[in-house]
Amino acid sequence: MPEGHSIHRIARQFRANFVGKVVAASSPQGRFVDGAAMLDGRTMTDARAVGKHLFLEFDHDEWLRVHLGLYGAWDFAGRITVDATLASAGGRIGQTNQRGTDPDLLNLPASLDLPDGLYGVEDSLTSIGAPRRTRLRISEGERVDEVGEAGDDTFPPEPVGAVRLRLLTDDAVADLRGPTACEVLGPLGVESVLLRLGPDPANENTPEAEDEFVRRLRRSSTQVGVLLMDQSVVAGIGNVYRAELLFRARLNPSIPGNQVSEAQARALWRDWAKLLAEGIRTGQMITMDGLDEDAYRAAMASRDDRHWVYHRTGLPCRVCGTPIALTEVAGRKLYWCPDCQQ
Q1: Are the C-beta atoms of residues 172 and 79 closer than 8 Å to each other?
Q2: CA distance 157 to 77
Q3: β-pairing verdict for 172-177 and 73-80
Q4: Which of 82, 92, 108, 245 is the most buried (most CB within 10 A)?
């Protein structure tokens, strides 16, 4: 399931390419005809992410809420702005990058100033200065395929597969497939959803938001490994970030929230804010600090070089050498080190 950084990057695509434009909305699949009709011909006025929820605002106080769930994805096509480094290689960038990207395709200069000079920085040399005709899928990861200069191919492309919703402007299109939730809401409906969510540091990294997270975490006797995935406690954390945050904090996943010290809870919030910002910037969940240029290059290319414990069952802990353990918590796999996280 896409974690918070991916949804914030989707919102960024909509802000860059759709906000301020009149949108034609349709449901090629036929399962969202009424909702699409409510949005058709309206101007998109805002795009926001809160945790794993995407909110697209249209004039007349209509909002589209989308939760991608396990199988959802947005496909963008047309003259859209994308992060350029892997787009030029036709590679795959994104959250888990299961297959990895050929390091040779990265073609990074030896003098690259890491990490600030790498992918996703809006004002960096690696960002596209003007939109180009391309295709981009954002779901659990991002896949970018260039299709040539504008005008070389038919626009808009025909819908492929079960497209629940298509949003179309004069030069860009976004196709939504397989979401868990897709609904049109008014302001009160949006407020109702937001009230059920914990704080999201990408939107509000303030002392008040930190205090709220600490309060919600420490008032519960539920295991901290469950609480970090509870979107009413903190918004946006999924399975990867949960495992990595707990390891980085050296916390046993089974410790009740009310036994986590205030200092530990505040450190968790601040670390989550840091990792989330880096994920939004790069499109990758890189959770290891202090990487040199070669190690950072490897981490960008392959998940195997990206994490402390996630998906490393039985492999030696990168710190102490103890085999990484796997347990199931709240129906999801949780990776941890029995020695470092006693």
Answers
A1: yes
A2: 8
A3: antiparallel
A4: 82
Helical (H) or strand (E) element with 92: strand 92-94
Strand 181-185 with 62-67, pairing: antiparallel
pLDDT tens digit string along 190-247?
999 999 999 999 999 999 999 999 999 999 999 999 999 999 999 999 999 999 999 9
CA atoms 63, 69, 71, 77: torsion sign: positive
Q: Which of 124-128, 149-153, 206-210 has the lowest mean pLDDT?
A: 124-128
Measure the CA–CA gap between 308 and 333, rounded to whole angstroms. Answer: 15
Q: Which residues pair with 26 in a beta bridge?
A: 166
Q: Yes or no: say if 273 and 201 are a contact pair by the CB < 8 Å rule.
A: yes
Distance CA(329)–CA(205), nearest Å, equals: 28
Burial of 179 per CB tally in 10 Å (0-12, 13-18, 19+): buried
Q: Tell me the sheet residues that pair with 42.
A: 23
> Which residue intervals of the chain are DSSP H helices?
4-17, 33-39, 84-87, 103-106, 187-195, 207-218, 224-227, 239-248, 262-282, 293-301
Q: How confident is the model at residue 102 (pLDDT cuts 50, 70, 90)?
A: very low
d(CA 326, CA 312): 9
Amino acid occupying residue 131: P
* pTM for this predicted structure: 0.82
- Cβ contacts of 219 within 8 Å, gap of 6 or more: 257, 258
Quick one: pLDDT at residue 303?
Answer: 83
DSSP helix/strand/coil, 71: coil
| Whether the bond into 156 is cis, omega within 30 of 0 | yes
d(CA 131, CA 339) in angstroms, rounded, equals 49
- Torsion of Cα atoms, 219 then 222 then 224 then 227, to 10°: -80
Tokens linked to 227: 């609480």
Residue pair 161/302 in contact by the 8 Å Cβ criterion: no
For residue 170, how many other CB atoms are within 10 A of its CB? 11
**Joined tokens for residue 9:** 């990057």
Q: Return the H-helix or E-strand segment holding 135.
A: strand 132-138
